[in-house]
Design brief:
Helices cover 76% and strands 0% of the residues. The chain has 251 residues and is mainly α.
């Protein structure tokens, strides 16, 4: 990673982490987009996004748990389906072209998800509302999302949140409380399964860690106490759309 690339990625990763953690995500799809735009090698992109995801998702999980939005009962059906498939996806080695296509599709879905979150009119939770997660559908969703997260180097929250919200299983903040630990588990499994990718982590990773953790502190504060991110999410959807197109066309 060149100094010029690092100089661009540090503020970009701070902003991305702040935006994503405000809605209970960890930012892997955004990190992939930023790295794609500055031409980081694919072998470096996936493990770097996963490593940063683990740190940010751990902090975000703690913040949503402290705020009372975490529920193990709501989380475990998704994990039961996702963990084995995330390990499988993380262990697979893809060609550069196929990786670009899959990552590009993941980013395009992320853009749709974020645009929907910005303009879909999701109602806020009522006082005392809890998540209502059906066992079998949650396990099936978790399995599909786990495989995709392992293959593309995302934590899966970009796929999980819209499903939970559209199905009416939980409100926005409780969805964040499910997504953050889901992302943490899938990212850790996918990175551990892809042991050959550890060597591809960049030497500049500590600087990137500082940027994303600072962003996570900012984003979770806004998301839990002062969330009003319609225009920010819409702007992020546009950025992800551009990056997705770049990846797919490059392949």
């Amino acid at each position: 990673m060149s100094p010029d690339q690092l100089l661009i990625l540090l503020p970009a990763f701070f902003l991305l982490a702040a935006l994503y953690t405000s809605v209970g995500h960890a930012g892997a799809s955004g990190y992939l987009a930023a790295m794609a735009l500055v031409a980081i090698a694919p072998d470096t992109m996936r493990p770097t996004a996963l490593a940063l995801n683990i740190l940010v998702a751990a902090f975000t999980t703690w913040r949503f748990w402290k705020a009372g939005y975490f529920s193990w009962r709501a989380l475990w059906p998704f994990l039961l389906g996702s963990v084995p498939l995330a390990a499988l996806g993380g262990s697979l080695r893809l060609t550069t072209g196929l990786y670009y296509v899959l990552a590009g599709c993941a980013l395009a879905l992320s853009a749709i998800s974020l645009a929907w979150r910005a303009w879909g009119g999701v109602a806020p939770e009522s006082p005392g509302e809890t998540a209502r997660i059906p066992l079998v559908p949650a396990m099936a969703c978790g399995a599909v999302i786990g495989l995709l997260s392992g293959l593309t180097g995302t934590g899966g929250g970009i796929f999980l949140s819209p499903i939970v919200l559209l199905a009416g299983w939980a409100g926005p903040r409780h969805t964040g409380g499910i997504s953050a630990p889901f992302i943490l588990a899938n990212s850790a499994i996918a990175l551990a399964a892809g042991t050959a990718t550890w060597a591809a982590l960049p030497a500049e990773l500590p600087w990137l860690v500082v940027a994303v953790l600072a962003g996570a502190v900012t984003g979770t504060w806004f998301g839990i106490t002062r969330l009003s991110t319609r225009w920010l999410l819409a702007a992020m959807a546009l950025v992800l759309s551009i990056a997705a197109a770049k990846l797919i066309l490059t392949a």
